[in-house]
Specification:
single chain, rod-shaped, three-stranded antiparallel beta sheet, Beta-Lactamase, alpha+beta, 8 helices
Length: 250
């Protein structure tokens, strides 16, 4: 079972739970108000906030933090039953609850983004290994390798299609993927992260064998704006270079 997918599908339920959990906990602690100091109650609420934030849903972490501060104020601080705080220490605890909730929510989101990026990178490397494993017998059927790499590049970049063309267009006006993962058009580097790949024309991905150009892939991303990362573009370059190595020996 994919935990991230389950969390994404049940996001509204998680946010509602994050809002209700502090109320339930504060109601229980209010029944033992005489024996449970507010500092201990605040620590218990921090656990709830951290658990909500750990889902990676920003709204859940923030909702739990605000709900904790609200119900801590109403049920556990003097005067009870009112949205008011008289003790300076309780004011500090309330502020800390919100601060901790925001901080933990952002840290959890950052961690999940890093995990997702690492997972994608692993997938790209696995694709390179799979492609490299077919090189031994590909000189007898280079067309099959070209077709397989075309599909791999399409998947890695998230584009519409990719096909191989012998030779090189020799036109610097066409958007071209360079070896470092940048995309250059008419001498200007395109901000792919902001603008995405060009949708009005095909993008050239050179196929090299060492310093020699043996052909190029034409990449099409016309139906939607895609914003592949520099890592994805560099993987596409490496895949193209694999084809160049095979074709130069075929």
């Amino acid at each position: 079972m994919d935990i991230r997918r389950v969390i994404s599908e049940r996001q509204p339920v998680i946010v509602v739970t994050a809002a209700a959990a502090p109320l339930v906990l504060c109601a229980v602690l209010a029944a033992w108000r005489a024996s449970v100091p507010n500092a201990s109650a605040a620590l218990a609420l921090v656990v709830v906030v951290v658990a909500a934030a750990a889902t990676g849903i920003r709204a859940a972490g923030l909702t739990a933090a605000v709900s904790s501060a609200l119900w801590f104020d109403v049920l556990l601080t003097a005067p009870q039953g009112q949205l008011a705080i008289t003790a300076p220490a309780d004011v500090e605890v309330t502020v800390l609850l919100v601060t901790v909730g925001v901080a933990v929510a952002e840290l959890a989101l950052w961690g999940r983004r890093q995990q997702a990026r690492a997972s994608r990178t692993t997938g790209y490397l696995a694709g390179l290994v799979d492609s490299a494993g077919t090189l031994g017998g590909s000189t007898r059927d280079p067309g099959r390798l070209v077709q397989g790499v075309s599909h791999r590049i399409t998947d890695v970049l998230g584009i519409d299609r990719c096909h191989y063309v012998s030779g090189y267009p020799g036109n610097d006006l066409e958007p071209t993927v360079w070896a470092d993962g940048t995309v250059v058009r008419s001498g200007r580097t395109i901000d792919v992260a902001r603008d995405g790949l060009p949708v009005d024309t095909e993008i050239v991905l050179p196929v090299r064998s060492g310093a020699r150009l043996v052909g190029h892939f034409l990449l099409t991303a016309s139906t939607r704006v895609v914003r592949p990362s520099p890592d994805q573009l560099r993987v596409a370059v490496l895949l193209a270079d694999q084809v160049g190595s095979v074709l130069s020996h075929a």
